Amino acid sequence: MKEPEPQPQPHPRTMGLDVGSKTIGVAVSDPLGITAQGLETIRRRNKRQDFEELERLLREYNVQDIVVGYPLRLSGSEGVQSEKIRQFADELRKRFQRNVHLWDERLTSSQANRILREADLSIRKRSQAVDRMAAVLILQSWMDSRAISNQL
């Protein structure tokens, strides 16, 4: 009797998060780690439900690394929001045993709004998509910087 062929394991992916007080924008890399695609935006309820939803996505997309947008002031200094995000990232590390990276997210929300405005979306549709688009921009810029450093 012939041994069954081993099934190829899906390539581990990277997830990008734009964490806000009301929502979490989510993006995930393609299987080759080249492009970022937006997923749903998580409407925050409480820590338990937020983490359950993230856990479902981590499993579904075979996520190995998580990139969390890190809100710095325009000057580059940290503020109150930076500390909250650092604590959130620490909790992700402990809870999910994944690599968690903080990534400078300055201007990603304004860039996301500009892209969506240029796409001629209504204000209502823009507000629904801006967190997801910001997560895409955070993840894509992180992946691009790694690709560049790997080429050097």
Short characterization:
This protein has 152 residues and is α/β, with parallel strands linked by helices. The chain has one domain: YqgF/RNase H-like domain (Nucleotidyltransferase, domain 5, 2-Layer Sandwich).
Layout of secondary structure:
Blueprint lengths: L12 E7 L3 E7 L6 E3 L3 E2 L3 H14 L2 E8 L9 H17 L2 E6 L3 H11 L4 H29 L1
Parallel strand pairs: 1-5, 5-6
Antiparallel strand pairs: 1-2, 2-3, 2-4
What would you say this structure looks like, in words?
The chain is 47% helix and 22% strand. The longest helix is centred in the C-terminal third of the chain and has 29 residues, at 123-151. The protein is built from 4 helices and 6 strands; from the N terminus they run ββββαβαβαα. With 152 residues, the protein is α/β, with parallel strands linked by helices.
Structural class: alpha/beta
Helix and strand run = EEEEHEHEHH
Whole-number count of domains: 1
The Cα radius of gyration reads 17 Å
CATH homologous superfamily caption: YqgF/RNase H-like domain
CATH arch. level architecture: 2-Layer Sandwich
Q: How many helices does DSSP assign? A: 4
Task: Give the mean pLDDT.
Answer: 87
Report the sheet-strand fraction: 15-25%
| CATH fold description | Nucleotidyltransferase, domain 5
Low-confidence stretches: none
CATH class: Alpha Beta
Please estimate the helix content. 40-55%
Distance N terminus to C terminus? 50 Å
Overall 3D geometry? globular
Main beta sheet? 6 strands, mixed
How many strands appear in the DSSP assignment?
Answer: 6
